[in-house]
Design brief:
It is a single chain. This protein is an alpha/beta fold. The chain has a single domain, classed as Glycosidases (TIM Barrel), CATH 3.20.20.80. Helix content is 35%, strand content 16%. The chain has an eight-stranded parallel beta barrel with strand order 1-2-3-4-5-6-7-8. Helix 7 links the parallel strand 7 and strand 8. The N terminus is likely disordered.
Length: 359
């Protein structure tokens, strides 16, 4: 056999093996929680989200993650709170959760923090309040409020925080050190971890359902309080490609790599808690798979790249026992072929989602 023929043989053999692996990944059923996120985005505090919810059961959706905004002025503000003109009223939250349950949908309630007047590069992942104790007391006040609403509405899961990376885990007491670095093994429990343990304990005392936290996709490994929760929650806006015209095979390979890292890390940490992907989504814009979190790409509408992202995720995670559920972001906005936002409404991605969830 010539060197050229041998090379061609090996290429064909590898291609066949890859095809078999892709077929295996695509087998099996959808996750137990077949979810969609419904952010309460309306600027009308009493907006009725019922019509949006009524569209979900036909898609095979079993769970809806209702996202409610709380605010602080910027990353250095003392503490967060609700704003009457932007945070939906309690009656609206309770009505929305009740509407979902009447449709047979289980409910996840997620309060999430937004910055009103963020400085450049500020977001909820790099908060730097003047006093962490004051900040956490304010945050605990808000979380307890929503825990009471979740309990009253018989929600299934409460998300105790979302993408609050700088608030997590162990920190060095020496202010000259990197504030996000882990303490050494012989360090006593640090301030932020203790604040989170108390935050979770307070939520448990009020809410009888399950608890999770939505870690940012690049910051889940160092969190020391996973064992206090019922799920390892993630916002999964992973960078899946660097090319402008990715193929399904290349994006699927990226998701396989991510899946392997998550499952290996979970096993190494000996976590019994299953994975719960609380946010995964793509805008219908060109290059969205390179920057899934970036809704301000301002590139041309690309419905197929959004659908490709959905397809790769579905093929990768279908039938995976480590995954308790997935929630696609977001069920908001008119959608349609001219829309460049996250919603799959009226777009090819919706057909992918329906096949994934109804299989």
């Amino acid at each position: 056999m010539t060197a050229r023929l041998a090379t061609l043989f090996l290429v064909a053999l590898c291609a066949g093996a890859c095809a078999q692996e892709v077929a295996a990944i695509g087998s099996g059923g959808p996750p137990r929680m077949r979810g969609m996120t419904l952010p309460l985005h309306s600027d009308k505090p009493d907006f009725d989200y019922g019509p949006l919810l009524r569209e979900l059961p036909e898609l095979g959706v079993t769970h809806v993650c209702v996202m409610v905004k709380i605010f602080q002025t910027n990353g250095k503000s003392a503490s967060p709170g609700r704003l009457l003109q932007y945070t939906p009223s309690d009656l609206t939250v309770l009505r929305t959760l009740a509407q979902a349950r009447r449709l047979g949908l289980e409910v996840v309630l997620m309060p999430f923090l937004l910055l009103q007047h963020a400085a450049k590069d500020e977001w909820r992942g790099n908060l730097q309040p003047p006093d962490w104790g004051v900040w956490f007391r304010g945050y605990q006040r808000e979380l307890k409020h929503f825990a009471r609403l979740a309990e009253q509405a018989q929600a299934k899961v409460l998300v105790v925080g979302s993408e609050l990376s700088s608030t997590e885990g162990h920190v060095r007491r020496d202010a000259s050190e990197d504030p996000e670095a882990a303490c050494p093994d012989d360090c006593t429990p640090c301030e932020l971890r203790e604040h989170w343990l108390e935050t979770i304990a307070q939520a448990r005392r009020i809410f009888s359902g399950q608890l999770t936290y939505a870690a940012n996709w690049d910051h889940y490994q160092a969190i020391p309080f996973w064992t206090e929760l019922d799920y390892v929650g993630l916002s999964a806006y992973y960078e899946l490609t660097k090319t402008p015209d990715p193929t399904l095979e290349s994006v699927l390979a990226s998701w396989r790599r991510v899946r392997g890292e998550l499952i290996t890390w979970r096993a190494q940490r000996e976590l019994a808690q299953p994975l719960l992907i609380l946010e995964v989504g793509y805008t219908s814009q060109d290059r969205t798979l390179s920057h899934p979190w970036k809704y301000t790409l301002n590139t041309q509408v690309d419905l197929q790249e959004q659908a490709l992202g959905y397809e790769a995720f579905a093929r990768c995670w279908r039938g995976q026992p480590a995954l308790a559920g997935s929630f696609f972001y977001e069920w908001w906005g008119e959608g349609g072929p001219e829309d460049n936002g996250y919603t799959p409404r009226g777009k090819p991605a919706l057909d992918v989602l329906r096949r994934f969830y109804r299989r």
